[in-house]
């Protein structure tokens, strides 16, 4: 009966309305024993950051299927600007290879491209979410 | 796990209404971080007695959307509100999808609104204690209203409503006939009844069932100063929300803190909260599989050299 549940935000950003990926991964993470705060569509970077602070989540997952990468960069800078440095942001979706490199250079911890398995994502989150680091400390 | 700052520091952080301090404290409550008790004790004693509104009802009744509309109304009046939205954990994986926030997203950028989702996590004492503790934290901050929302299925989630000053029970049309309305349980706990999705052509019938259920019992409790109203709402459009908000405010003006009804309620709440903490302490000990003493006692019970009552005495004695 572990109470160190990993808490995750799953969200889209901007006008990206492709919810299926986000809904599937929410369910996968739930079944892996995580607590998923599902924010849904039409989220501004500011709304995502506010939710991350109020929900005190351990990791943020952005589902991206609309090439709105500058908004994802805004989430990074807003979150870090609010003094939250220990919560990684990951992205999942049909992200081109060169964009993956760009996003990682700008502070996205990991990008899960098409073909990534549920287990890969679960294992990554378990190893890298904030709660995990705190427990090791 | 990082150590908690001292109670004084936390009180200061909360009174300068820092959302982050509040959010982190609620996480510490969920994770049962050591050292939390003295902090909660200080916060409780300095509590403001904010108005706590409980909202419950069956899944899909429109509770979160209703809360969303209530937030809009409260903000229009220039008042602030904190929301604690509780969703069930999976009994199988222990995970949860917390979707209440989704319905309240238009308030996500508003600094007069704090929204926190919590998973119910399935333990009997655990949820009571966690929600009670989270309310202690929110009550240390200057909110005009605090809203607690739970799915009204399962004794656990219904029970939580005892932590609220007033309970809004949300139902939908077609949720059953007069016999359903007369059944014991969920129908008894409301202070204000809401029939949501009231554009449905069965809405008036449901309102009548609820009204007759309420008036039928009235003569049995002549000393009651509050009679439950039935309010029709439509979460999607906001229809009836002002009416609901007025009933809530009316409740607080009738059930003042010094009335016998409210005093009794608050005494019940303290007893309920205390029982939650007590149960949590005992259950926590019991679920700790590393506790060799308990394992040994269970071995002894298995071979009938001891019995469950002896173990209970042992556990109670160990708590001093």
Fraction in helix of chain A = 40-55%
CATH class of chain A: Alpha Beta
Termini separation of chain A comes to: 21 Å
Largest interface: A-B, 34 and 34 residues
CATH topology of the largest domain in chain B: Rossmann fold
Shape of chain A: globular
The chain-level structural class of chain B is alpha/beta
Please give the oligomerization state of what you see.
Answer: heterodimer
Specify the CATH architecture of the largest domain in chain B. Answer: 3-Layer(aba) Sandwich
Question: Could you give the distance between the termini of chain B?
Answer: 28 Å
Output mean pLDDT of chain A: 92
Describe the structure.
The complex is a heterodimer of chains A (137) and B (320). The two termini of chain A are 21 Å apart. Chain A is of the alpha/beta class. Chain A has a 5-stranded parallel beta sheet with strand order 2-1-3-4-5, sandwiched between helices. In chain A, 46% of the residues lie in helices and 18% in strands. In chain A, α2 packs across α3. Chain A has a single domain, classed as 3-Layer(aba) Sandwich (Rossmann fold), CATH 3.40.50. Helix content of chain B is 48%, strand content 14%. Chain B is α/β, with parallel strands linked by helices and 320 residues long. Chain B is built from 13 helices and 8 strands. Chain B is globular, with a radius of gyration of 21 Å. Chains A and B meet through α1, β2 and α2 of A and α2, β3 and β4 of B.
């Amino acid at each position: 009966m572990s109470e160190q549940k990993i808490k995750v935000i799953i969200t889209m950003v901007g006008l990206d309305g492709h919810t299926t990926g986000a809904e599937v991964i929410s369910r996968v993470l739930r079944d892996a024993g995580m607590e998923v705060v599902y924010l849904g569509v039409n989220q501004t970077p500011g709304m995502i950051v506010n939710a991350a602070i109020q929900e005190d989540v351990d990791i943020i997952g952005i589902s991206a299927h609309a090439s709105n990468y500058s908004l994802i960069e805004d989430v990074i800078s807003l979150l870090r600007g609010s003094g939250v440095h220990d919560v990684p942001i990951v992205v999942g979706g049909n992200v081109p290879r060169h964009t993956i490199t760009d996003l990682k250079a700008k502070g996205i911890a990991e990008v899960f491209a098409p073909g990534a398995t549920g287990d890969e994502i679960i294992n990554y989150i378990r190893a890298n979410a904030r709660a995990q680091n705190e427990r090791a400390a | 796990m990082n150590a908690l700052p001292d109670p004084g520091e936390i009180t200061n952080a909360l009174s300068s209404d820092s959302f982050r301090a509040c959010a982190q404290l609620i996480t510490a409550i969920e994770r049962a971080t050591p050292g939390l008790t003295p902090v909660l004790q200080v916060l409780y004693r300095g509590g403001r007695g904010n108005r706590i509104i409980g909202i419950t009802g069956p899944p899909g009744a429109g509770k979160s959307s209703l809360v969303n509309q209530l937030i809009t109304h409260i903000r229009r009046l220039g008042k602030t509100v904190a929301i604690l939205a509780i969703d069930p954990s999976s009994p199988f994986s222990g995970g949860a999808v917390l979707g209440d926030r989704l319905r309240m997203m238009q308030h996500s950028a508003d600094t007069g609104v704090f929204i926190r989702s919590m998973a119910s996590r399935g333990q009997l004492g655990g949820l009571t204690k966690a929600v009670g503790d989270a309310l202690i934290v929110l009550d240390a901050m200057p909110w005009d209203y605090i809203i607690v929302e739970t799915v009204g299925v399962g004794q656990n989630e219904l029970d939580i409503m005892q932590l609220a000053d007033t309970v809004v029970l949300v139902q939908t049309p077609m949720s059953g006939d007069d016999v359903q309305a007369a059944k014991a349980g969920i129908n008894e706990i409301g202070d204000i009844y809401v029939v949501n999705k009231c554009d449905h052509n069965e809405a008036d019938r449901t309102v009548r069932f609820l009204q007759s259920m309420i008036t039928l019992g009235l003569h049995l409790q002549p000393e009651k100063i509050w009679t439950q109203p039935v309010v029709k709402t439509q979460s999607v459009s906001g229809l009836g929300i002002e009416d609901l908000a007025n009933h809530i405010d009316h409740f607080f003006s009738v059930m003042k803190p010094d009335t016998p009804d409210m005093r009794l309620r608050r005494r019940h709440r303290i007893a309920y909260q205390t029982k939650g903490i007590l149960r949590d302490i005992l259950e926590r000990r019991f679920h700790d599989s590393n506790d060799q003493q308990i394992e040994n006692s269970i071995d002894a019970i298995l071979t009938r050299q001891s019995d469950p009552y002896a173990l209970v005495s042992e556990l109670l004695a160990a708590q001093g």
